[in-house]
């Protein structure tokens, strides 16, 4: 360990920090990933293709108006009622 000197210790600490950040980001990403296939199927069953742009605009507008703080879209969709999605 004496050959690398203090520079190697700095590199070791920074490497550990980078690995910790990558792991945290992966955990966050996978916790935010909802059941998108089921959501798309539910939308497809209820909305005609011609009406889809207007529907998406209404849903996103309601989401931005009624979400709680920094709530994610997946979290909002899980507790929103059916009339709010139509």
Question: How would you portray this structure in words?
Answer:
The chain is mainly alpha-helical. The chain has two domains: 1-33; 36-85, no CATH class. The chain has four helices and no strands. It has helices at 6-32, 36-46, 52-66, 73-79. The longest helix is centred in the first third of the chain and has 27 residues, at 6-32. 0% of the residues are buried. The mean pLDDT is 81.
Give the tally of structural domains: 2
N to C succession of SSEs: HHHH
Helix content: 55-70%
Mind telling me the C-alpha Rg?
Answer: 22 Å
Note the gap between the termini: 65 Å
Indicate the topology:
Layout: H1 6-32, H2 36-46, H3 52-66, H4 73-79
Structure, briefly:
The protein folds into 2 domains: 1-33; 36-85, no CATH class.
Which structural traits does this protein have?
2 domains; 0% strand
């Amino acid at each position: 360990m004496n050959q690398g000197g203090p520079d190697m210790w700095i590199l070791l600490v920074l490497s550990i920090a980078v690995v910790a950040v990558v792991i945290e980001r992966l955990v966050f990403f996978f916790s935010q990933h909802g059941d998108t296939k089921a959501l798309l199927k539910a939308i497809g069953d209820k909305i005609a293709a011609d009406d889809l742009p207007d529907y998406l605009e209404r849903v996103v507008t309601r989401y931005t108006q009624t979400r709680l703080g920094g709530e994610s879209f997946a979290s909002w969709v899980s507790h929103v009622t059916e009339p709010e999605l139509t």
